[in-house]
Amino acid sequence: MERPLFGPSLVLGALVGAGIALAGSFIGNGFLQARASDRFVTVKGLSEREVAADLVLWPIVYAVTANDLGSLQQGVETGEKKIRAFLGSDFDPSEIGATAPRVTDRQAQGMTDQHLERYTAEATVTLRTHKIDAARSAMVRSGELVKEGVAVVRSYEYQTQYTYTELDQIKPEMIAEATRDARRAAEQFAKDSGARVGGIRNAQQGYFSIEDRDPFSPQFKKIRVVTTVQYFLEED
User: Taking the model in full, what pTM does it have?
Assistant: First the structure.
Protein backbone atom coordinates (compact mmCIF):
# COMPACT_ATOMS: atom_id res chain seq x y z
CA MET A 1 0.00 0.00 0.00
CA GLU A 2 1.33 3.39 -0.95
CA ARG A 3 1.61 6.09 1.73
CA PRO A 4 0.00 9.51 1.04
CA LEU A 5 2.38 12.19 -0.08
CA PHE A 6 1.21 14.57 2.65
CA GLY A 7 0.81 13.13 6.11
CA PRO A 8 -1.33 14.62 8.85
CA SER A 9 1.65 16.16 10.60
CA LEU A 10 2.81 17.83 7.42
CA VAL A 11 -0.64 19.30 6.76
CA LEU A 12 -0.88 20.50 10.35
CA GLY A 13 2.50 22.14 10.11
CA ALA A 14 1.54 23.89 6.91
CA LEU A 15 -1.64 25.23 8.49
CA VAL A 16 0.27 26.50 11.51
CA GLY A 17 2.84 28.16 9.29
CA ALA A 18 0.15 29.84 7.24
CA GLY A 19 -1.53 31.07 10.40
CA ILE A 20 1.69 32.50 11.70
CA ALA A 21 2.37 34.19 8.38
CA LEU A 22 -1.11 35.63 8.26
CA ALA A 23 -0.87 36.84 11.86
CA GLY A 24 2.49 38.35 11.08
CA SER A 25 0.95 40.18 8.16
CA PHE A 26 -1.77 41.64 10.39
CA ILE A 27 0.77 42.62 13.01
CA GLY A 28 2.99 44.21 10.39
CA ASN A 29 0.12 46.20 8.91
CA GLY A 30 -0.97 47.27 12.37
CA PHE A 31 2.57 48.37 13.18
CA LEU A 32 2.71 50.44 10.01
CA GLN A 33 -0.62 52.02 10.83
CA ALA A 34 0.57 52.80 14.36
CA ARG A 35 3.73 54.35 12.98
CA ALA A 36 1.65 56.46 10.61
CA SER A 37 -0.61 57.64 13.44
CA ASP A 38 2.46 58.70 15.42
CA ARG A 39 3.32 61.38 12.88
CA PHE A 40 2.51 64.73 14.42
CA VAL A 41 3.80 68.26 14.69
CA THR A 42 3.92 70.49 17.77
CA VAL A 43 3.28 74.18 17.17
CA LYS A 44 2.60 77.27 19.26
CA GLY A 45 -0.07 79.87 18.64
CA LEU A 46 0.03 83.44 19.91
CA SER A 47 -2.68 85.98 20.66
CA GLU A 48 -1.95 89.51 21.88
CA ARG A 49 -4.21 92.43 22.65
CA GLU A 50 -3.74 95.95 23.90
CA VAL A 51 -6.46 97.20 26.23
CA ALA A 52 -7.07 100.19 28.44
CA ALA A 53 -7.04 99.59 32.19
CA ASP A 54 -10.49 99.86 33.74
CA LEU A 55 -9.57 100.16 37.43
CA VAL A 56 -7.09 102.42 39.19
CA LEU A 57 -5.90 102.40 42.80
CA TRP A 58 -4.32 105.70 43.77
CA PRO A 59 -2.87 105.83 47.30
CA ILE A 60 -2.34 109.38 48.48
CA VAL A 61 0.28 109.24 51.23
CA TYR A 62 0.82 112.23 53.51
CA ALA A 63 2.91 112.96 56.58
CA VAL A 64 2.08 114.73 59.84
CA THR A 65 4.38 115.74 62.72
CA ALA A 66 3.61 116.86 66.30
CA ASN A 67 5.07 116.88 69.79
CA ASP A 68 2.13 115.07 71.35
CA LEU A 69 -0.08 112.24 70.15
CA GLY A 70 -3.30 114.21 70.43
CA SER A 71 -2.08 116.90 68.07
CA LEU A 72 -0.67 114.22 65.79
CA GLN A 73 -4.04 112.48 65.49
CA GLN A 74 -5.77 115.79 64.87
CA GLY A 75 -3.34 116.53 62.06
CA VAL A 76 -4.00 113.10 60.51
CA GLU A 77 -7.76 113.68 60.59
CA THR A 78 -7.43 117.16 59.14
CA GLY A 79 -5.31 115.85 56.28
CA GLU A 80 -7.82 113.09 55.56
CA LYS A 81 -10.72 115.57 55.45
CA LYS A 82 -8.88 117.80 53.00
CA ILE A 83 -8.06 114.88 50.72
CA ARG A 84 -11.64 113.62 50.80
CA ALA A 85 -12.87 117.12 49.96
CA PHE A 86 -10.39 117.30 47.08
CA LEU A 87 -11.63 113.98 45.65
CA GLY A 88 -15.28 114.47 46.56
CA SER A 89 -16.16 116.64 43.57
CA ASP A 90 -15.38 113.84 41.09
CA PHE A 91 -15.74 110.60 43.01
CA ASP A 92 -18.26 108.84 45.20
CA PRO A 93 -17.41 108.47 48.93
CA SER A 94 -17.56 104.68 48.49
CA GLU A 95 -14.55 104.95 46.17
CA ILE A 96 -12.42 106.61 48.86
CA GLY A 97 -10.91 104.77 51.81
CA ALA A 98 -8.37 105.48 54.55
CA THR A 99 -5.98 103.33 56.56
CA ALA A 100 -4.68 103.74 60.10
CA PRO A 101 -1.59 105.97 60.32
CA ARG A 102 1.86 104.58 60.94
CA VAL A 103 3.30 106.46 63.92
CA THR A 104 6.99 106.86 64.74
CA ASP A 105 8.42 108.12 68.04
CA ARG A 106 11.67 109.84 67.18
CA GLN A 107 12.72 110.09 70.81
CA ALA A 108 12.32 106.36 71.30
CA GLN A 109 14.58 105.85 68.30
CA GLY A 110 17.31 107.94 69.89
CA MET A 111 16.78 111.08 67.82
CA THR A 112 17.33 114.01 70.18
CA ASP A 113 17.34 116.95 67.75
CA GLN A 114 15.31 119.61 69.55
CA HIS A 115 14.31 121.19 66.25
CA LEU A 116 12.34 118.10 65.22
CA GLU A 117 8.94 117.32 66.60
CA ARG A 118 8.83 114.10 68.57
CA TYR A 119 6.15 112.19 66.64
CA THR A 120 5.63 111.58 62.94
CA ALA A 121 2.71 109.83 61.27
CA GLU A 122 2.35 108.56 57.73
CA ALA A 123 -1.24 108.06 56.62
CA THR A 124 -2.86 106.98 53.37
CA VAL A 125 -6.13 107.82 51.67
CA THR A 126 -6.78 105.50 48.72
CA LEU A 127 -8.95 106.16 45.69
CA ARG A 128 -10.28 103.01 44.02
CA THR A 129 -12.28 103.83 40.92
CA HIS A 130 -13.15 102.81 37.38
CA LYS A 131 -13.05 106.47 36.29
CA ILE A 132 -9.55 106.34 34.86
CA ASP A 133 -9.57 109.71 33.10
CA ALA A 134 -10.99 111.54 36.13
CA ALA A 135 -8.40 109.92 38.39
CA ARG A 136 -5.52 110.89 36.13
CA SER A 137 -6.82 114.45 36.01
CA ALA A 138 -6.93 114.54 39.82
CA MET A 139 -3.34 113.27 39.95
CA VAL A 140 -2.24 116.20 37.82
CA ARG A 141 -4.03 118.60 40.19
CA SER A 142 -2.73 116.96 43.38
CA GLY A 143 -0.47 119.96 43.98
CA GLU A 144 -3.58 121.73 45.24
CA LEU A 145 -3.41 119.52 48.33
CA VAL A 146 0.04 120.83 49.13
CA LYS A 147 -1.33 124.38 48.93
CA GLU A 148 -3.95 123.30 51.47
CA GLY A 149 -1.21 122.26 53.89
CA VAL A 150 -1.25 118.50 53.21
CA ALA A 151 2.31 117.17 53.15
CA VAL A 152 1.90 114.68 50.31
CA VAL A 153 4.91 112.37 50.13
CA ARG A 154 6.16 110.03 47.45
CA SER A 155 6.00 106.45 48.64
CA TYR A 156 7.74 103.51 46.99
CA GLU A 157 5.68 101.15 49.14
CA TYR A 158 2.29 102.49 48.05
CA GLN A 159 2.24 103.18 44.34
CA THR A 160 -0.53 103.81 41.86
CA GLN A 161 -1.77 100.64 40.20
CA TYR A 162 -3.77 100.22 37.01
CA THR A 163 -5.52 96.92 36.39
CA TYR A 164 -7.77 95.29 33.81
CA THR A 165 -10.70 93.36 35.25
CA GLU A 166 -12.55 92.12 32.14
CA LEU A 167 -10.17 89.31 31.17
CA ASP A 168 -12.85 86.61 31.37
CA GLN A 169 -14.84 88.36 28.65
CA ILE A 170 -12.04 88.26 26.07
CA LYS A 171 -10.46 84.93 27.06
CA PRO A 172 -12.52 82.76 24.65
CA GLU A 173 -11.77 85.02 21.68
CA MET A 174 -8.06 85.11 22.45
CA ILE A 175 -7.83 81.34 22.89
CA ALA A 176 -9.61 80.83 19.55
CA GLU A 177 -7.25 83.33 17.93
CA ALA A 178 -4.17 81.59 19.36
CA THR A 179 -5.50 78.20 18.18
CA ARG A 180 -6.01 79.54 14.65
CA ASP A 181 -2.48 80.90 14.71
CA ALA A 182 -1.19 77.46 15.75
CA ARG A 183 -3.19 75.84 12.93
CA ARG A 184 -1.64 78.18 10.37
CA ALA A 185 1.83 77.25 11.61
CA ALA A 186 0.99 73.53 11.41
CA GLU A 187 -0.38 73.88 7.88
CA GLN A 188 2.75 75.67 6.75
CA PHE A 189 4.91 72.93 8.25
CA ALA A 190 2.78 70.22 6.63
CA LYS A 191 2.94 71.96 3.25
CA ASP A 192 6.73 72.17 3.44
CA SER A 193 6.99 68.48 4.36
CA GLY A 194 4.52 67.17 1.78
CA ALA A 195 1.78 66.23 4.23
CA ARG A 196 -1.51 67.63 5.43
CA VAL A 197 -2.78 68.50 8.88
CA GLY A 198 -5.12 66.06 10.60
CA GLY A 199 -6.92 66.27 13.90
CA ILE A 200 -5.61 67.58 17.20
CA ARG A 201 -3.49 65.08 19.12
CA ASN A 202 -3.00 67.22 22.21
CA ALA A 203 -3.50 70.84 23.21
CA GLN A 204 -2.34 72.95 26.15
CA GLN A 205 -3.56 76.42 26.97
CA GLY A 206 -0.87 78.72 28.27
CA TYR A 207 -1.18 81.28 31.04
CA PHE A 208 -2.58 84.70 30.34
CA SER A 209 -0.13 87.49 31.15
CA ILE A 210 -1.09 91.13 31.67
CA GLU A 211 1.72 93.67 31.58
CA ASP A 212 2.08 97.41 31.18
CA ARG A 213 2.28 98.39 27.54
CA ASP A 214 5.40 100.39 28.41
CA PRO A 215 6.91 102.04 31.53
CA PHE A 216 5.43 105.43 30.66
CA SER A 217 1.76 104.50 30.14
CA PRO A 218 0.73 101.94 32.75
CA GLN A 219 -2.93 102.79 32.07
CA PHE A 220 -2.62 100.65 28.91
CA LYS A 221 -2.09 96.91 29.23
CA LYS A 222 -0.77 94.21 26.91
CA ILE A 223 -2.49 90.84 27.28
CA ARG A 224 -0.77 87.76 25.89
CA VAL A 225 -1.49 84.04 25.72
CA VAL A 226 0.41 81.22 24.00
CA THR A 227 -1.19 77.85 23.24
CA THR A 228 0.71 74.66 22.41
CA VAL A 229 -1.06 72.29 20.03
CA GLN A 230 -0.06 68.93 18.52
CA TYR A 231 -1.63 68.02 15.17
CA PHE A 232 -1.53 64.66 13.44
CA LEU A 233 0.12 64.69 10.04
CA GLU A 234 -1.48 62.66 7.25
CA GLU A 235 -0.22 61.66 3.83
CA ASP A 236 -1.10 64.27 1.24
Answer: 0.76
